[in-house]
Task: inverse folding
């Protein structure tokens, strides 16, 4: 391909003139959006399509309440965050939703952002922190407080839910 330069942002998948700052450098993840005093749980899942091939897509995850870190006094406002499923594998870290460091427990709403995807609530117990990977679907809870994530996110990965 004439003119191809792998270091030029134009050739990066997902880059646009309108919004080119959202793509982190290869291999780097943004800093976690939560205080270090809250334990983190490694959550994993495997996604395959109907033919058994690995699926590449996203999960949208949103805390269902504002939560506060008692140790630092930091208030964390809920927002939807997109997590990539790469080659059928989800491997993310989420802050515990029942940590002793926060005022009160909360749950997360999870939306599988692909055709046929489901929406459900999860609880991320602090007892699972540092125990190794925890399968996502074992964290499901029956929760009437699911905050709907109504539409697919734009290509840059963030959205604001329309209903609270």
Result:
């Amino acid at each position: 391909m004439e003119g191809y330069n792998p270091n030029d942002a134009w050739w990066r998948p997902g880059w646009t003139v309108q919004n080119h700052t959202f793509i982190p450098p290869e291999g780097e993840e943004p800093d976690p959006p939560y205080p270090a005093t809250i334990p983190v749980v490694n959550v994993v899942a495997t996604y395959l399509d109907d033919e058994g091939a690995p699926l590449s897509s996203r999960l949208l995850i949103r805390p269902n309440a504002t939560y506060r870190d008692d140790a630092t006094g930091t208030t964390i406002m809920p927002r939807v965050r997109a997590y990539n499923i790469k080659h059928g594998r989800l491997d993310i870290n989420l802050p515990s939703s029942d940590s002793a460091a926060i005022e009160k427990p909360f749950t997360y709403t999870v939306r599988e952002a692909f055709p046929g995807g489901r929406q459900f609530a999860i609880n991320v117990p602090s007892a699972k922190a540092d125990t190794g990977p925890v399968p996502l679907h074992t964290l499901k809870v029956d929760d009437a407080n699911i905050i709907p994530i109504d539409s697919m996110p734009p290509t840059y990965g963030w959205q604001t839910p329309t209903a609270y």
